[in-house]
Design goal:
By secondary structure, this protein is α/β, with parallel strands linked by helices. It folds into 2 domains: about 100 residues, NAD(P)-binding Rossmann-like Domain (Rossmann fold); about 190 residues, UDP-N-acetylmuramoyl-L-alanine:D-glutamate ligase. About 30% of the residues lie in helices and about 20% in strands. It contains 9 helices and 13 strands. Strands 7-8-6-9-10-11 form a 6-stranded parallel β-sheet, sandwiched between helices. Strands 3-2-1-4-5 form a 5-stranded parallel β-sheet. The chain has a two-stranded antiparallel ribbon with strand order 12-13. β1, α2 and β2 form a beta-alpha-beta unit. α4 crosses α9. The radius of gyration is 20 Å and the shape is globular. The N and C termini lie far apart (about 60 Å).
Length: about 300
């Protein structure tokens, strides 16, 4: 059982939940609900106003919250906590995260999506299309901690997982199907350099095997891969090749208006989603059904009014 693998990994260890936002709370709820047999449990966060509601939990709060990290066997880190000023070689604990735990023990069901731009839209497109045929959950950076769905793991066919660079930064496992949409300069307040940011993103494929699949932006191949060459099966998709007003799916012509989307970049995102759907034997009519039911996400490119 998937859940047993996580519980056995944590068993009898001293555990620090580093960062107590949405994902940190989800991690604590998982440990309590599943009666994980830890030796010690603690929470560390810069926020001093966290309610100390559990007597069996030790709390390290305030500006010096990172000082405790060498007191534990396992650190389950929230994505928003930066360790760029910490010498990781001096940390004895194993640093992990919800993302890594899920990939370590359940990668076969994971379709992972990353990129500087377009992650949420593409993740939701893939979810919409696959949901016409399979039992699918959408998780990750889109706002839903993945450990919330551990109880449904056996019944779920696929988890469409949006990965931020923060979630990928320290992982040593990669999804069965990985999507690397693009790479631009971003989050340089969090990382020491653009290369450090790029290396975090590259973890989406760095731990894949020859049996895994990587779908990537052919026009950014050098930037995406850097000096690393993935050993997975590679499917390159050129954004420049989809810049027209329609998409032909076996004689069914879809226009941008059919997609309920604005911008040619969204057709590239759709081609990525369509490629995955076909790999997973989703029929073309279901692909069309799934994409016609897709609505653009809030705060993206949208028409306001015509003047």
């Amino acid at each position: 059982m998937f859940k047993d693998s996580i519980n056995n990994f944590l068993k009898d260890k001293s555990i620090l939940i580093l960062g107590f936002g949405r994902e940190g709370r989800s991690t604590l709820n998982y440990i309590i609900k599943n009666k994980v047999k830890y030796s010690k449990l603690a929470i560390a966060d810069k926020n001093v106003n966290i309610d100390k509601e559990y007597e069996f939990v030790e709390y390290f709060l305030g500006d010096n919250y990172l000082d405790c990290i060498n007191q534990f066997d396992v650190i389950i880190k929230a994505p928003g906590i930066s360790l760029k000023n910490i010498d990781l070689k001096r940390i004895n604990a194993e640093i992990t995260s919800q993302a890594e735990l899920f990939l370590k023990f359940g990668k076969e069901k994971v379709i992972g999506v990353t990129g500087t731009k377009g992650k949420s839209t593409t993740t939701t497109m893939i979810y919409n299309i696959l949901s016409t045929k399979y039992k699918v959950e959408i998780v990750g950076n889109i706002g839903i901690p993945v450990l919330n769905f551990v109880d449904n793991f056996e019944e779920t066919d696929y988890f469409v997982y949006e990965f931020s660079s923060h979630q990928l930064e320290l992982i040593d496992a990669s999804p069965k199907i990985a999507v690397f949409l693009n790479l631009y300069q971003d989050h340089l307040d969090y990382y020491s350099s653009f290369e450090a940011y790029a290396n975090a993103k590259r973890n989406i494929y760095m731990h894949q095997t020859a049996d895994d699949i990587l779908i990537y932006n052919l026009d950014m191949e050098v930037k995406l891969f850097g000096k690393y060459l993935p050993i997975s099966k590679r499917v390159g998709i050129s954004q420049n090749e989809v810049m027209n007003n329609t998409i032909n799916i076996n004689g069914n012509i879809l226009s941008l208006s059919d997609l309920n989307l604005s911008g040619n970049h969204n057709k590239y995102n759709f081609i990525v989603a369509c490629t995955i759907a076909r790999m997973l034997n989703v029929e073309d009519e279901k692909i069309i059904e799934g994409i016609k039911g897709f609505k653009s996400l809030p705060h993206r490119l949208e028409k306001i009014r015509r003047i």
